[in-house]
Amino acid sequence: MKKAMTLSYEVGQNLYINITNQCSCNCIFCIRKNEDGAYGSDPLWLEHEPSMEEMQNDLLQRDLSKYQELVFCGYGEPTMRLDFACELAKWIKSVQPEICLRLNTNGLADIYSPSQNGKASDLVSEVFDKVSISLNGGDSETYLRVTNPRNKPDNAYQTMLRFAQDCKKNGLDTCFTVVDIISPDEIKLAQEVADTLGITLHVREYVS
Ligand code: SF4
Prior knowledge:
The protein has 208 residues and is an alpha/beta fold.
């Protein structure tokens, strides 16, 4: 495993932000099982969790105005540092108010990284413009098999769905994703769940 301090990396028109390698899940499709980076990036395994100063210094070296979106994605689950992510997002908005901020998340912050400052969906909605949530299945059984959340809590699927609904209700541009590692029938079921909640579903191709 190669380590570096790659705190941001370009993907197409967007800049991806890597604030943590921590994750509460062990998804069967996780790119981290096969690579040290993503989309041709430098290694994304971090030598240490970046401080706010390190993140700001990294981002100040970029022309943030040229990106369509800044995506909190990481090589891990960004909400494992939920308060840090929100504080950084606020700082980015202070230096680049027009920027579109997206959070890519497993939607489980209320289980694995509860904030003292409030519900995850409310905190996220204060600073982010978009949220992309891993739906990963159309029922709890598929979800737990694909996502493998730590200790497999019975309420994981419902917690993730509630997070998505609350983000949408709060006005965030909200979407779900599934990876086509699940069967067509399972994707169909996931689509039905997304349709019922009025949330767009993106089916992502599995990258091995
Ligand atoms: S939530 Fe993301 S980082 Fe965590 S195991 Fe799943 S795909 Fe990997």
